[in-house]
Amino acid sequence: MTEKIQALSSLAEIVEKCQKCELARGRTNVVFGEGSAEADIVFVGEAPGYHEDLQGKPFVGSAGRFLDELLREILGLGRDEVYIANVIKCRPPENRDPTAHEIDSCKPYLLKQLEIISPRVVCTLGNFATKTLTNRREGISRLRRKPIRIGKFYVFPIFHPAAALHRGDLYDEVRQDFASLREFLDAPEPPEEPSQMELF
Ligand code: URA
């Protein structure tokens, strides 16, 4: 087992026992994250839904199937070549928005995951993950496709795949976002927005 895999599984064990907020009471599983500990890119979603809670894995419902398709068709990557996580590790009941306290309780686990994996790029899916990691006031429509240097890696915000499932008119936009991520990953010296922020 590599050092990173070991560190991630020790962290997963700690997160499984977490009782820091109300969400711990209603959960079936902790949805810690899944994929390669050596991944160059980590995708960060919002929170587990019904199917994720039942299976204990991120993005296994309809948004997950679409994410797999986008990864395969546009990025040429499989799930086992990237790492997929959420800001919140337990399902908010009825999929309501997590409270500030719930986010504050869970965010350190995500930061620790990112520190261990140490990817080059963290792709935030949608408003919630983007705001949580960048602390920017602008919404996803302003920030998408613009790399933001934060500490050791770039945050690359794009629309959440679920956006296209709720609004058919966003389907092409979501595909374009992934194409733009592909270009960013391929660029030798990616353009960046200056940032003073350090995550760790
Ligand atoms: N949407 C998310 O943001 N995360 C999941 O794990 C599933 C759907």
What does this 3D model show about the protein?
- Helix 1 packs antiparallel against helix 5 and helix 4 (about 60-75) packs across helix 9 (about 170-185).
- This protein is of the alpha/beta class and about 200 residues long.
- The protein has one domain (about 10-185): 3-Layer(aba) Sandwich (Uracil-DNA Glycosylase, subunit E).
- It has nine helices and six strands, in the order ααββααβαβααββαα.
- The longest helix has 18 residues, at about 100-115.
- It has helices at about 5-15, 25, 50-55, 60-75, 100-115, 125-135, 140-145, 160-165, 170-185; strands at about 35, 40-45, 85, 120-125, 150, 155-160.
- Uracil binds near residues 46 and 61.
Keywords:
globular; Uracil-DNA Glycosylase, subunit E; alpha/beta; binds uracil; 46% helix; 200 residues; 6-stranded mixed β-sheet
Write the layout of secondary structure elements.
Blueprint: H1 3-16, H2 23-26, E1 34-35, E2 41-45, H3 50-55, H4 62-75, E3 83-86, H5 100-117, E4 121-125, H6 126-134, H7 140-143, E5 148-150, E6 153-158, H8 161-166, H9 171-186
Parallel strand pairs: 2-3, 2-4, 4-6
Antiparallel strand pairs: 1-3, 5-6
Number of strands: 6
The CATH top-level class label: Alpha Beta
The SSE order reads HHEEHHEHEHHEEHH
**Overall SS class:** alpha/beta
The portion of residues assigned to helices is: 40-55%
Query: What small ligands are held by the chains?
Result: uracil
CATH architecture grouping? 3-Layer(aba) Sandwich
Shape: globular
The count of domains is 1
What is the fourth-level CATH superfamily? Uracil-DNA glycosylase-like domain
